[in-house]
Amino acid sequence: MSEARTVRATVEYDGAGFHGFQRQRSARTVQGELESAILAAAGAEVTVAGAGRTDSGVHALGQVIAFRIDTRLDDATLLRAVNAHLPSDVAIRQLTTAACDFDPRRDATSRIYEYRIEQRPVRPVLDRCRAWHIAQPLDLAQMRCAAARLVGSHDFDAFTAGPQEGTRREVFALEVWREGTSIFVRIAANAFLYRMVRRVVAMLVRVGRGEIDAASVASLLRPAPRAEVRGAAPAHGLTLMRVEYSGAQRRYNQERTKQAVLR
After folding, report:
1. How many CB atoms lie within 10 A of CB 131?
2. What is d(CA 189, CA 52) in angstroms, rounded to the nearest whole number?
3. Burial classification of residue 106, based on how many CB atoms lie within 10 Å of its CB (0-12 exposed, 13-18 middle, 19 or more buried)
4. Contact 184/177 with Cβ under 8 angstroms?
5. HEC per residue, 152-215
6. Residues 6+ apart with CB under 8 A from 210
7. Active-site residue among 55, 75, 107, 157?
8. In contact, 197 and 115? CB cutoff 8 Å
C-alpha cells in the first residue's frame, strides 16, 4: 500500500484567463484547475496550497504549490500525468516529494516579482496581456532613486489596497532597468501586502513622469495615507518570477528532483 506524502511543485501560468490563484465557486482559477487535473491524473481529491495568492490577470513563472496525496505514482510519473490534464495556460514545471511539514507560504524566505512596462508610441498587440503600455517617456534615473528609498524594512501600509494587520515588510532589492522598448521593475521581499507590488510600480511611474519627486517617496513609509500612492499598476504586467526557501529545503528538493529524473 502507498502512503500519503507531501508534494511540492513549481507552476507556470498565464494569468489572463484566470480570476486569480485562489479557488472560487463560480470563477476559473489556477488552484481550481490544478486540483481538477490532480484528481483526473491520480484519482485523489487534494487541496492545493500556494506560496502566493496572485490576483486576477497576474502571471507566474515560478509559483510554488504543495499538496498531500496518497498515490502509487512516483514524482516523475505524477508530473507527466497532471500536466496531461492541465489546460494550455498552466503547467507544472517541476514536481518532487517534500518534507511532510513543508508549507509553500510559511516556509518561503523571499518572493520575487517582475513588472514589465512597454514604452513606445503605439500600443503593443502581441504583448498586450503581458505589459503596461505607457507612451510617455519615463525618467529611469529618478525611478531608480525612488526605488532605492524603498529597500529595507519599512511600514508599507500606504502601499496596500485594504485593511491589513502587520504592514511592515522587508524589501531585499528593487531594481529598474530598460531592455529595448521595455522597462522592467523587479522587487524581492520577505512577503508582500495585498497589491503592494502594483502600487509600488504605480508610484515609480509617477516619479518617472515627474509628478512627484523621488526624495519624497520616503514620506510614504511613516506610514502615510493610502491615497498618496494613487492607485495600482494594471495586473497584466506583473509576473511572480520565483519563491525562495532556506538552503536546507532547497537541497532536499534538489535531491528529490534528481531522483525523479533518474527513474
Report:
1. 23
2. 13
3. exposed
4. yes
5. EEEECHHHCCCCCCCCEEEEEEEEEEEECCEEEEEEEECCCCCCHHHHHHHHHHHHHCCCCCHH
6. 139, 142
7. 55
8. yes
Look up cell 503593443; give the residue: 124
* Span 23-32, average pLDDT: 95
Give the lowest-confidence range in 91-105, 192-206, 245-259: 245-259
pLDDT, tens digit (0-9, with 9 covering 90-100), for 29-70: 999 999 999 999 999 999 999 999 999 999 999 999 999 999
Of 148, 84, 118, 105, residue with least CA distance to 240: 105
Q: Report how far residue 126's alpha carbon sits from residue 48's, in angstroms, rounded to the nearest whole number.
A: 32
225-241 b/e with 16+ CB inside 10 Å = b? ebeebeebbbbbbbbbb
Where do we find the cell 485594504? Answer: 162
Amino acid at 82: V
Enter the DSSP assignment of 126.
T
Residue 55: active-site member? yes
Provide the grid cell at 227.
491615497
